[in-house]
Amino acid sequence: MRLADRTSARLRSRELTTACVTVKIRRKDFTTYTRQRHFEPPTQETRVITAIARELLDAWLAAQPRAACACWAWA
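User: That's the sequence. What structure does it adopt?
Assistant: Structure tokens below.
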């Protein structure tokens, strides 16, 4: 959520919007996975960006039942 908030703040400060959210997941063994989603309309809203990032991470975790997730709890 902090990353989405920082990203949204940068978008707003530069008067930009985004129509794609990408998450990068790095496992303990440094294997890296990326997931992205395009959407419309473009936005700079933290809530929208956070929700999409959460959906991407949740989907990845569901497909990786042995993945350790000691990183966060969704509020």
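The chain has a mean pLDDT of 89.
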